[in-house]
Specification:
197 residues; alpha/beta; Rossmann fold; eight-stranded mixed beta sheet; 36% helix; globular
């Protein structure tokens, strides 16, 4: 049975588009049923709608200081879409344990570092500052602990002489667009073993 996928974004949605393209390619065990954002102006919403996917926006700003109320509002379109899997793709809000628990074992995230290294923000600069020889990205199951949870896939890129956070981020993003669709395809088909590209 085809799995129903909802995707949460906050911006342009390049990883979301990579997921949509792969699901549209045929023979996929999943289909997109919703793209939702915490920013009504997120460019990715327009792109998702153009791809024929239902979209929703719940602006987080009126809920300042009340994450539970924001999440309750966000849950309405998500639950209406009846997703089997929830994919975070550049969703820049930290979710409460109650929200995460509702989708335990069914929520994925892509993070621009080789976890467990560098959870949180500024991952590329932190890798450069540490003198690392390589960087990359990780797809993992979401747990209440930020950027934690079982690793489902990783892709690596070498750090080159003269790299900046921006040049490194651009090369890692290319691998994100390869890794996330490949992991979702496997995950939706029941394979939770880690994939290393």
């Amino acid at each position: 049975m085809t799995k129903r996928v909802a995707i949460l974004i906050s911006g342009g949605g390049s990883n979301m588009l990579a997921l949509l393209r792969d699901m549209a390619a045929g023979g996929h065990p999943a289909q997109p049923v919703l793209v939702a954002s915490n920013d009504p102006a997120a460019a990715g919403l327009v792109k998702a709608a153009a791809a024929g996917v239902t979209v929703a926006a719940v602006d987080h700003r009126p809920f300042k200081g009340d994450r539970a109320a924001f999440e309750a509002a966000l849950l309405e379109p998500i639950l209406a879409a009846e997703p089997d899997i929830l994919c975070l793709a550049g969703f820049m809000r930290v979710l409460t344990p109650a929200f995460v628990g509702r989708f335990a074992g069914r929520m994925l995230n892509i993070h621009p570092s080789l976890l467990p290294l560098y959870p949180g923000l500024h991952t590329h600069q932190r890798a450069l500052d540490a003198g690392d020889a390589e960087a990359g990205c990780t797809v993992h199951e979401v747990t209440p602990v930020l950027d934690d949870g079982p690793i489902l896939g990783q892709a690596r890129v070498p750090i080159l002489p003269g790299d900046t956070a921006e040049t490194l981020a651009a090369r890692v993003l290319v691998q994100e667009h390869r890794l996330y669709p490949a992991v979702l395809r496997r995950f939706a088909g029941g394979d939770r073993s880690p994939l290393y590209l």
